[in-house]
Amino acid sequence: MSQGVGWWPCPCRVSSVLNRDVKHFGKQHLFDGSEETCWNSDQGTSQWVTLDFPRPVKVSELHIQFQGGFSSRLCTLEGEELVKISELYPQDNHVEETVLDKLKITFGSSTDFFGRIVIYHLGVLGERL
């Protein structure tokens, strides 16, 4: 049975933040559980989020809540040494179970004309090892 991995506050990086306004749109809002806050990327192609887990995890599901109009048509998952794990479409949430301690999610092909991505919640389900 899958459980929340709960990596926060492990190191997390994002490709950009809208207008560099970290207080209002920074990466911390991906995990704060608030319906009022979000991570909002700046313009550009290929936005991403990288998670460095404190110990290996077996990832089985990925939950991402995008804002309509600012989502990704295709997400690419990469693990150790940026080896591609899989690609998934936002309506999918199951990923091929993979053991890793680093995960990079690349959001390609944004539905926004300027390439912005807005995420209210990011969750990784699996097992801590």
Helix content: under 10%
> For the record, what CATH class applies?
Mainly Beta
Order of helices and strands: EEHEEEEEE
CATH superfamily: Galactose-binding domain-like
The major sheet is characterized as:
8 strands, antiparallel
Number of helices, where a helix is a run of at least 4 consecutive DSSP H or I residues: 1
CATH topology: Jelly Rolls
Number of domains: 1
End-to-end Cα distance, whole Å, is 14 Å
Low-confidence residue ranges: none
* Number of beta strands: 8
Overall 3D form: globular
Strand content: over 45%
- Average pLDDT for all residues: 86
Second CATH tier, the architecture = Sandwich
Structure description:
Strands 1, 2, 3, 4, 5, 6, 7 and 8 form an 8-stranded antiparallel beta sheet that branches. The protein is built from 1 helix and 8 strands, in the order ββαββββββ. The protein is mostly beta strands. The chain is globular, with a radius of gyration of 14 Å. The chain has one helix at 22-25; strands at 3-4, 12-14, 39-40, 47-66, 72-78, 84-88, 94-110, 118-128. InterPro entries: Galactose-bd-like_sf. This is Nuclear receptor 2C2 associated protein.
